[in-house]
């Protein structure tokens, strides 16, 4: 886990990358892809989705993953994805969510499921609801982006309309 970045947050959640406490790693390229893209769960690009806070196509630098103008919109999108799994596909467990979100052809899906179950304290086949989703996004972000954001930031982000 990479805890060595110190971010200053403005009121909208934009990052100031000028302060880092990692021995000279002072530019944005040193960050994980999810952090560079303000997309903490590394949501793949989909032209069918028009996300609130999405970077304009003409300004995108990553052809594979969504990019957001700040991290709050990335957390909002992550929550929307999980709520779509819940309401449209009846996927309500860590096991089901990760099998869809991190398919075995690209990931160690079983390992991720086990790790998330251990990190959240939620059994992998237990139906999750409410605050469990905030906790799950928090832990998925640590795995995907290597950074532990404040839970309060995720809570605030999912309320953006």
Task: Characterise this structure.
- With 161 residues, the chain is mainly α.
- 40% of the residues lie in helices and 2% in strands.
- It has one domain (8-157).
- It has helices spanning 33-36, 71-89, 94-101, 109-120, 131-145, 151-157; strands spanning 8-9, 15-16.
- Strands 1-2 form a two-stranded antiparallel sheet.
- Strand 1 and strand 2 (15-16) form a beta hairpin.
- The N and C termini lie far apart (31 Å).
What would you say about this model in short?
By secondary structure, this protein is mainly α.
Distance N to C terminus: 31 Å
Derived from helix and strand composition plus strand pairing, the structural class reads mainly alpha
Series of secondary-structure elements, N-terminal to C-terminal = EEHHHHHH
Individual helix count: 6
What's the overall average pLDDT, rounded? 85
Given as residue ranges, the uncertain stretches (5+ residues, pLDDT < 50) are: 1-26
Total number of strands: 2
Helicity range: 40-55%
Please describe the biggest sheet, giving its number of strands, its sense, and whether it closes into a barrel.
Answer: 2 strands, antiparallel
Overall structural domain count: 1
Radius of gyration: 15 Å
Per the principal axes of the C-alpha atoms, what is the gross shape? globular
Task: Order the strands across the largest sheet as they lie in space.
Answer: 1-2
Structure characteristics:
globular; single chain; two-stranded antiparallel sheet; 161 residues; 2% strand; Structural protein P5; mainly alpha
């Amino acid at each position: 886990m990479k805890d060595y970045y110190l971010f200053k947050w403005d009121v909208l959640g934009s990052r100031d990358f000028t302060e880092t406490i990692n021995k000279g790693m002072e530019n944005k390229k040193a960050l994980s892809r999810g952090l560079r893209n303000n997309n903490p769960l590394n949501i793949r690009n989909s032209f069918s989705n028009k996300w609130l806070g999405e970077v304009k196509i003409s300004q995108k630098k990553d052809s594979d993953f969504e990019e957001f103008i700040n991290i709050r919109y990335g957390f909002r999108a992550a929550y929307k994805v999980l709520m779509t799994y819940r309401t449209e596909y009846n996927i309500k467990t860590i096991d089901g969510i990760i099998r869809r979100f991190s398919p075995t052809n690209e990931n160690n899906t079983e390992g991720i499921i086990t790790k998330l179950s251990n990190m959240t304290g939620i059994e992998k086949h237990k139906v999750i609801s409410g605050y469990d989703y905030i906790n799950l996004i928090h832990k998925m972000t640590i795995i995907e982006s290597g950074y532990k954001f404040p839970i309060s930031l995720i809570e605030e982000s999912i309320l953006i309309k």
